[in-house]
Structure formats: C-alpha cells, structure tokens
Amino acid sequence: MKRRTAIRIISLLCIVAVALGGFAWASQNKVQEYKQFAKASYQHSFAELVTNMSQVDAALQKSLYATSPAVAGAICTEVFGKAMMAQMSLGRMPFSTVELEQTAGFISKVGDYAYVLSRSVNESSGYTEEERENLKALSDTASIIHQNLSQLQAEMMEGRLTFRELEKAQDEMDMSEDGEAPVTMGSSMKLIEGEFPEMPSLIYDGPFSEHLTNAQPKLIAGAEEISREAGRKIVADFLGIQEGRVALSAIGAGILPSYQYTARTSAGETNVEVSIAGGQVISVTSSREIYEAALSDEDAMSAARLFLERHRYENMRESYFMKEDGIMTVNFAYEQNGVTCYSDLVKVGIALDNGGLVFFEAKGYIMNHVERDIPAAQISIEQAREHVTPDLEILSESQVVIPSGGNYEIYCYEFKCRTEEDREYIIYVNAVSGEQQKILILLEDENGALTL
Known about the structure:
By secondary structure, this protein is of the alpha+beta class.
C-alpha cells in the first residue's frame, strides 16, 4: 500500500471516529433532554393531582353543610369535575395500577357518587341522612389522601424523593452518595396504599355501588350445583355432539362460577362456559374460519331466532345487530307482557357463510332474568310523547325496562326518532315520573347499529 493511500485511509477513519463521537455526544444530550422533560412532566402531573385532591377534599367538606337542593347539586357537580381532573392527572403518572389501585378506585367512586347525587338532590329536598353520612366518610378519606400526597410532594421538592422510572435508563441499581438506594415515588405510593383508610360502603344508583359488588345471578338463585360430568353432558347436548369430544379446560370463580370446556366439533375447536349453579350455558365461542358470506341479513336473523327457540329461550325480541368479519351478532332481550326488558340480554352470533352458530353469550340473561313486578305507568304514551321535542319525528314507540347506571331498572316509554338531517335518536321517558330519563344517538348502516 502506498504511503499516500495509507494516510488517506487513516485520515478518513479519524474523521469517521470524530463524527461518531459527535453523534454519540449529541444523542446523549438528547436523551438527557428527554429525561429532564419527562421528569418535569411527571412533577407537573403530580402537582396537579395534589391540587385536584385538595379541591375534591374542599368540595366534599362544603357539601356537608348544604341545605338547599340547588346548592347541594352544584357542589356535587364540582366534586365530580375535580375528581375527573384528578383521574386525568393520576393517569399521567409513571406507576403501575397495583401501586395506585386504591387511590384510583377512591377517586372513581367519589366522582361517580357525586355525579349521581347531583341529579337526585335536585329531584328531592336535599340529602338523605344516609347520603350525608356517606359524604362525611368520603370527606374524611379525601382529607387523609390529600395530606399524604402533600407530604410526598414536599419530600419530592426537597429532593428526598425520586421518580425511579426516570432513572432506569441510567442504572437499574442507581445508588445515592451514602450507598443506599433512593426512596422512590412508586415505593412511597405503595406505602400509602398499604395504610389506606377504610372506604365507606356506598349503595346507590351507580357502577361503583356496593350492591353491584355483591350481585348474585337471579336466574339461578338457589339452584343446585352440578358436577363436572353433568357439565360435559350439557355442553354435548347444546352443541349436538358426543360427550367424548368435550373436555374440561378450567374452572372459573367470581360472581358467576363456571366450568369451562373445550369441544372438538366438525367445524373445529369450540369453547363453552357453563355455570356451576344450575348448569346454564353462559357462552360459546367457535374458532372456525368464516368464508365468503352467502346468507342475507333476514336469513341470518331467522337462524338466530331458530337457535334460541331450539334451546328454549322464550319470548325473546331482537333489537339490534352488528355484522363484522363474516358474523352477524344479534342482540335479543326478554319481553314480558309487551314490555321489553333490556337487562335480560342474549347475544347470538351467526356465520354468514352457512348460518351456523359461532358465538353465544347469555351472561346478562343469567344475571338479570326474573319475572318482574313492573309498576303501573303513571302517564299515558300520549303524555309521554309530549316530552319528545317537536324537532324530532317519532318513527316507533314501545314500552321497555332499561338498566340504570347502577344496574337498577326503570320502566320507560322508548321513542325512536329522526331529525330533518336523517340523524336518529332514542328518547326514553320515565313511565312513572313522566320525565325524560335518557337520550341515545343511534348510528345505523348496512353493518348494523350502534348507540352512543
């Protein structure tokens, strides 16, 4: 190799080395910038969380002394709004759900409870004694949480507390100058969670109510438990196959304990869940491949109805359907004396290539079905129509029982309506109180219907 060529190569390598070094230096600076930005963002979110919890605490304290329904409703709305802002701040924190489980649960519960009260107090003369006691218990808990979070914030500002998540990129075992691991925000939150104050038991019309936690399936209340062998026979009969092709795969716990089976059918593998109490089929899911659609919507709907009739589901009325991936899923609800009970829900999925069953779910029906004592309507359907704005054209009307946010039920008149722009809405008018109960937007196309 000539001397001149060697010099050129060495020079080129030096240039490359310098360039790579510069790139590495710039990259390191950029990483540090990102870390500082993330740290500042987390600190800002935590400061917002402390502020929002302070405002939740203050609003709850004010709620205890409200005697006017209007003032009580306004304060409850304030609690709800501040709780939602606290949830958003909490969602931006770099912790796992385990570290924040009780704190997040409390914020959700207090916000939902306040939202429900904001509606009910305006319809009554104010808080009941029980509601006032619940607010006092929530206020006490909020005060403790706020004090704990404020203490953490003070330690963080003094540098005695760190966001461990920000340091992982540097060293998983990063140590402080005295050789001890720094106290992290995550570990401190775990400590607070471990000493979390006792939560009040709330029974109200909302999704975090205590009565939902302890809900029992109504259809199989008091039913005897079946054996695993009996469950296998139920699955075989339901699918129309031999018992030898059904095997137990798992046992589920919870509100609705179940046996879970895997069945080998001509179409492939099918998973079936059967309730241990009463032996009711909860769900069926087939893994078979769906080919090109050959059935019309009417034929698929007829197949779904026929399936329910064969399995002795009586007085079921189809409401809406959805088509996706070659499957039409039809929602059916129980009808009692002309009143549709939407809580008693059964979903049937029919393959559009051959009309076979590929999906079935009856959990809603098992949890809620019972012959109801439907209250007498206090207003006529003609009077209920007056609660539908004249801007809407009424397309259909019916009597229904709908679930509320807390899984209670409300007897209503249902009006399916349309605007001049062809937008569709569903208006529910309470048949007992005579007031509007709920409004839904109905989105329909060739693939089915969706309500918002």
